[in-house]
Specification:
It contains twelve helices and 14 strands. It has 273 residues and is an alpha/beta fold. This is HAD family hydrolase.
């Protein structure tokens, strides 16, 4: 039997809109784990909220792993420990924050399990709907950082064009970080050469599983490096158009109707693939 790994995005891929895992998906995950395959959650969420989600979803099981902060943190779910991490250099974080201030764009970063921000407005409220995290209002985000952060996030709930323009106007930041949209409202600056694709490569090497035995599934643009890094890249039916164009396969079902179960049956449990 081939030892395989399934890498899957969390929100809008594995989870339903109510943030739960359907019985169909849960049963399929249990079967693949029982047969000796590995299951890896891939998320842009901070490690604090991702760890909480793992526990609530009942995935603190052997052969379950997680990659958080869009590739910056690799985590063993059953051992409850970080296996690897990458951070954004302080000078890069500083420049992103300063340029966001100049452009009048909301910006936040992270210190351990706490959000650091200078303003509590619509943007922070929007973010907190999905990320149940503590936050701290500070006078100076950069000055409050005690260590290199995992990422810096720019957020605009009304006009994505402002974020697109910011990205285009600052090519010097692109050269020093990995910048991408994880959704229309979030422009993320992460450590250079760090994304969900690097997470796929790290976990595969750590578990001594060849890339030829890997499958990755997602729904958003920040999942593109992941599905390209895996041997089989899958976009769920409800996924972004750009992701679907990059995928090897698009599911017949969406995240509400067992897309992950479909992937497990077709690519993990099927010995002919």
């Amino acid at each position: 039997m081939k030892h395989k790994i399934l890498f899957t995005d969390l929100d809008e891929t594995l989870l339903n809109h109510d943030k739960s895992i359907s019985k169909k998906n849960r049963d399929a995950i249990a079967e693949m784990l029982e047969q000796g395959h590995d299951f890896v959650l891939m998320t842009g969420r901070p490690i604090a909220t991702a760890r909480l989600a793992v526990k609530e979803l009942g995935l603190t099981l052997p052969r379950c792993y997680m990659v958080a902060f869009n590739g910056a943190v690799v985590y063993d779910c059953v051992a409850d420990r970080i296996l690897a991490e990458r951070t954004l250099p302080m000078e890069v974080a500083k420049d992103v924050i300063l340029e966001a201030h100049k452009a009048g764009i909301y910006v936040q970063t992270y210190q351990q399990d706490t959000i650091l921000t200078e303003k509590h407005g619509r943007e922070l409220d929007f973010y907190l709907k999905n990320a149940r995290m503590r936050y701290r209002l500070v006078d100076d985000i950069y000055g409050s950082l005690e260590q290199e952060p995992y990422k810096v996030l720019l957020l605009d709930v009304d006009n994505q064009e402002r974020l697109l323009e910011f990205r285009q106007q600052h090519p010097e930041l692109l050269e020093r970080s990995n910048c991408f949209f994880s959704c229309n409202e979030y422009l993320e600056y992460c450590p250079k050469d760090t994304d969900k694709g690097s997470g796929v490569k790290y976990i595969s090497k750590f578990l001594n599983v060849p890339i030829e035995n890997t499958v990755a599934a997602g729904d958003e643009r920040n999942d593109i490096p992941m599905i390209r890094a895996a041997h089989v890249g899958v976009a769920v039916k409800n996924g972004h158009k750009e992701l679907q164009e990059a995928a090897d396969y698009v599911t017949e079902h969406d995240n509400e109707h067992g897309a992950i179960a479909e992937i497990i049956e077709k690519f993990i449990l099927n010995e002919d693939v």
